[in-house]
Amino acid sequence: MTSTSSVMRSEISQQPDALRRTFAELLPLRPELEALARETKQVLFIARGSSDNAAVYGGYLMQAHTGRLATLGSPSIATTYGARLDLSGVLAVAISQSGRTEEIVETMRWAADCGARTVGITNGAGSPLATESDAALVTQAGDEVAVPATKTYTTQLAALAVLALGLGADLDPADLDRVPDAIEESLAAPTDGLDEIVERMVAVQGAVVSGRGMAFSTALEASLKLKEACYLHAMGLSYADLLHGPMAVVDPRTPALLMAAPSGPTLGGTVALAERVRQAGAPVFGFGGGAELARASDVNVPVPDLPEWVSPLQLIVPAQLLTERLARRLGLDPDVPRGLNKVTQTS
C-alpha cells in the first residue's frame, strides 16, 4: 500500500471534533424544533447523494423513535412535474452539504408553498437552505476539500439525531456525547482487518454492501463511497432486498460487506445473512456487529459498543477508511474522483 497521505484521510480524522462542535451548536435548538413538532405530524426528507443516504437514517430514526411517518421525497415531483400537493401537517427536512444545490433549495421552497414547515440541514451557514428554512440546523464540519463527503455526512447524521430528540424521541441525549470518543477509538485501533480487506478487494470488480434498519443508511453510503473513489461496481442493498433475488450476485469474486451496530433488533438478521452469504462461497467482510457478526465473517472490523440509534455515526468511519485506503492501493486519488464536483447541480 502506498504511504501517500490524502486530504480525505485528514478529513476522516477531523470527524470527532466536527461532531463535538455540531452537537454543541445544535442541541440548544431543541426548543425551536419542539415548537415545529407541535405543528406537524409527518416528516418528508428532501436530499440527493450522500445527503439522501443520511435521510435514510433519519427515516428509520423518526419512525422507530418519534412515532411519525417519514418518507423520502422525490424532488422531481416539484422541479420537473410541478405537481401541487397538500403538505399541511408535514415537516419538510431539506438536507444539502452546501445548502445551495438548486434542486434541493427549489424543492424546499415548493414544500413550504404547499403548506409544509421546513428544516434545513446544511454545512453552509448563510446558504439559501439555512436562511430560508423555518429552522436551520447548521452543522459545524468546517471546510471539506476532498470531493467524497466524510465529515459533512457524519455531521448531517448528528443533526438528524438532534432533530429526532426535538420531535419527541424518547432517547438519551447523553448517548450523543459518547460518539466522538468512540470514533477516536476506532481511528486509533489496529488496522489489520482493514488492511486484509483492502488486499482482498484489489482484484474484485464488484461488491455487495448491505445492512438492515438504521445500518442500511451506512450500507448505502459505503457503497456510494466505493463507487465514487474506487470506481467499484458496489451495490448498496437492504437485507430484505438482497434476500429477494440479488443473492445470486454474490460469489467467490464478489464479496459482501455487511454493516451492523454492535447490538439491536436487526443484528440477528445480519448475522444470519452473513452465514448464508458464506454458504454461497462469497467472502464476508463485517463492519461492527460485535462478536456475533465477527464469528460469521471472514474478516471483521469492530466498532465500539454504542446504542443502535447513534451507531451509524461511527459505523460509517471504517467504511470511509476502507475507501480511502483501497483507492490509494489502486493508484487512484481519493480526493478528486473523476467526473465529480463538490457541489452537484441537477435539473
From TrEMBL:
Gene3D superfamilies listed in its UniProt record: Glucose-6-phosphate isomerase like protein, domain 1 (3.40.50.10490)
UniProt KW Transferase keyword: no
One Pfam family cited in the UniProt record for this chain: SIS
Keywords tagged on the record: Repeat
SIS domain span: 32-173, 197-332
Keyword Repeat on entry: yes
Protein name in UniProt: SIS domain-containing protein
Originating species: Nocardiopsis coralli
Lineage, uppermost ranks: Bacteria, Bacillati, Actinomycetota, Actinomycetes, Streptosporangiales
